[in-house]
Write a structure and sequence with these properties.
Elements (H helix, E strand, L loop, with lengths): L5 H11 L3 H14 L6 H8 L37 H28 L9 H9 L2 H13 L3 E8 L3 E8 L2 E11 L4 E4 L3 H5 L4 H9 L26 H6 L5 H19 L3 H22 L11 E5 L2 E3 L38 E9 L11 E11 L7 E10 L6 E9 L1 H18 L4 E11 L7 E9 H17 L1
Antiparallel strand pairs: 1-2, 2-3, 3-4, 5-6, 5-8, 7-11, 8-9, 9-10, 11-12
Length: 480
Amino acid sequence: MTHPSFYGELYSCINYSETIEDFESSWASVLDKYDLGKNEWLQAVYNARDQWAPVYFRDTFFAALPSNQGVTSFFDGYVNQQTTLPMFFKQYERAVESSLEREMASDFDTNCTAPMLRTPSPMEQQTANLFTKKVFAKFQEELVETFAHTANKIDGDETLSKFRVAKYDQDDKAYIVMLNLAQMKASCSCQMFEYSGILCRNILTVFTVTNVLTVPSLYILKRWTRNAKLGQGLDEEDNVKQGNNSLTSRFNHLCLEALRYAEEGAVSAETFDAAVSALRDGLRKISIVAKNVGKPLSSQGSGSTQDGGIEKTPATSDTVPSLWPWQDTMPHHFNLNDGCLTSGDLNQPTMTPVAINHDGGLADNVVVYTCFKSMTWVIENKSPASKVAVINLKLQDYGKNPAGETEVQFRLTRVTLEPMLKSMAYISQQLSLPANRVAVINLKLQDTKTPSGETEVKFQVSRDTLGSMLRSMAYIREQL
């Protein structure tokens, strides 16, 4: 390539120009620098700039998170110009599977690792508990930049104020922020929130100088939160009725409600006193309800998986024997052997990565000949809020001669299934390394039929087998 820097400069012009004037000026500068002013193709592209250049769509929501890594395709690394149509379909399935694994690994990272806070701002603490890790990182970047920005009020009245915001050493490059403090609404001339759904450093700077300590609920988009996948297609009231089945989703939903509550309660001394009184009354009611949590269960629906497939089987009304007790009030501790969660209570099934196979051999201190063969399940419930999946695993024991088959049954709710999925995604991520061929899984199940009250089941899986289990478990989660 004659001019290796041309691509980078053109890319910056297209993707990092903040105003139409900046884009047009930068485009002309690049073409002049490389003597491309007479290039007919570039001229035709420029004439249609309002149909493709991002700067012309800043007022349209694209849910686009800015990135320094450029544009990547969903099919990067899977298809090329020589890919045939039959091969494309195979590669498409692999790309989807890889995308699912990355998504689960990202969910695992979000839920099991705490982001590092860089400021004493209440906004940072608030959003760290609400946003996914990737979105929080972008918000944190904008928040940190506010320390290098100044905001000066240049116009306005009691209702609407106009601020000029600029970086301390770039006063000639300023943005205009309009703030309606009564309605807690703000807009910036950079239009970053309208385009990406993340508040810009300019609005955050104005919030800081006007003593807005937390992000108004209007600017916390559900799509960026940890519980975004729950209750899809339902309105807010329906989401509450669905029960928010995981601890994380319940916590995040209560945080959002608390934000609205705080905004209304902080308006005056009178509303503050009323809010505090109501909180104390509510806490007493919660304590009473927490002591009387009931748990009825019944049966409906089933399915199975073998070699990666998902197959529905007829439902059965018979109660399947299980290693899982009939109870829902469970401590949220899972022994995942990865340091992200505590391992205090084993009154529920856990999936623990005990060992990873390196160079084709098992760890020296582990002898496991049992392999995963197939999995079936039955969904039991009386109401949507109390569904339970009865899982039946078939394991092939090659340690016996001849090889024997073992069946293991246990029950899972959505609350207990989610951490299991996260652990499986973590194991799958470890198996993506070339040296790791097999993972040894250790399930610890509560079993009232044994003297110790628990049973351990150990088996080994390959990456492909674990991928099939992940897809089936994800399907079961949707049924719950």
